[in-house]
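User: Predict the complex with alpha-D-glucopyranose.
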Amino acid sequence: MSEATDPTSAGTDVPWWRRGVVYQVYIRSFADGDGDGTGDIEGLRSRLPYLRDLGVDAVWINPWYQSPLADGGYDVTDYRVIEPRYGNVEQAERLIAEANGLGIKVIADLVPNHSSDQHVWFQEAIAAAPGDPARSRYHIRDGRGPDGAEPPTDWASVFGGPAWTRLDDGQWYLHLFAPEQPDLNWDHPEVRDEFHAVLRFWLDRGIDGFRIDVAHGLVKDPTFPDLGAETQQILGSPRKANHAHWDRDGVHEIVRGWREILDGYDDRMMVAEAWVAPNRLSLYLRPDEYHQSFNFSFLESPWDAEQFGTVITEGAAAAAEVGSTSTWVLSNHDVMRETTRYGLPNDTNWRTWPVTGPVDALDVDLGRRRARAAALLFLGLPGSAYIYQGEELGLPEAWDLPAEVLDDPVWERSGHTQKGRDGCRVPLPWTADGPSLGFGDGKPWLPQPIGWSDLAAEVQADDAASSLSLYRMALALRRRWAAADEELEVLDLGADVVAYRRGSGMTCVVNMGDEPIDLPEHTEILLRSDPAGDGRLAPDDAVWLR
Ligand code: GLC
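Assistant: Here is the predicted structure with alpha-D-glucopyranose placed in the model:
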């Protein structure tokens, strides 16, 4: 019997990450165990049973290291210390062990492109004189023009404004992100050695894998050329091979060094956050490099059958070509939540995070309906699926956060023209009542919008028609029907329909058109995105059949 006809063989003979469901924990906003208004490790530990019941295989935890949180923890002061607001290393070890005990792997987030400006290396660098070797772990250079008053290059920061900030002594340092995130110099052997040691530190503590932040960064063109009028956009770097500071060939040698270390341990993995051209992505997935790389095309696709069809076909093919599987991503901590995204007209540039919120253009019900259909679309595909916390609750973007609570550097760096990413980072609602809807005893670091009581996990758990119930059912069915093999046949059921059949015999159909369609021949309906759906498949509705 082939694997395809034996659905019970669900992925036992393949590495877990190839078909796993990874739940992304934005630790600051997941659950607050000590009542200080910020999520933490103990909060996460207390909610592990929820994640087990949801049916995930792994959690990826956003950076938990010591940090001033100038960019939500992507500004690390010490990679071997847990941020005290989140806990400590002993608690992290206990979390890993307990999660593993429940069958859940734990993936840490490693940030190698830059450190915090509070990191001891950067403090040492700026205390030293220009030309001192202590400066060479970063990119610190003389400026141009009279008195070096112009930055060394015209490079722009991803968060807005120039990528260089001037020190008191006149030199400039590079930060592709916020000024609190100076870029490390990866040509420096100490930088390479330090990250090897950091990988070992966490592997020795049982971590199951790493999500590598800005994996297409790290290496810079040593000639530091100007880039002209090129602009940067968050999560949208220009996807050019060997750009002056993105996707340079030199990055692969660094990755191979990391892979060698991981291969010295059992069953560990790393997944790259690499915003590169599709034809360059496979380079990151060579057998001695990353195990996986995020495929962001899915979350970038507008609600359009043809475009989703292309994304699915190309994503699966590109991963298969290098012997990997694709990672399907609907949302994460950097993008507008899908419930809101799909309720906006297709041509909305949601990356600009409108300051007042696109109130007039938003169709709330449509967004919800489409988000549910999108869940079945991506959870049925072969490969691994990444779920961002709150996605299973159908949380919308909280775009009416008052200016005074905004924390994302994008807000300041854009001169208050873009609100930034806080709207998808609001603390989770766990219970219908309580001061922070069960998030914790303190005042949450971002306020939860009015109306989120109805979206609380506890409320949804008891409602068979809720988004949470849909995700639970989908993940349970997925083990049997979608994670049992890696076969995919894209079906042509009309221009407005996305449909595919899996090796297990499961078929997924999503109607992205304006008219109801007939269901293809089937013996059983496994799951519908609209629990009230009956008979034909309504617009913006999805179904799993066999
Ligand atoms: C990645 C992270 C994002 C962060 C940036 C800088 O894109 O996902 O949240 O701001 O890197 O570290």
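The CA atoms of residues 464 and 470 lie 8 Å apart.
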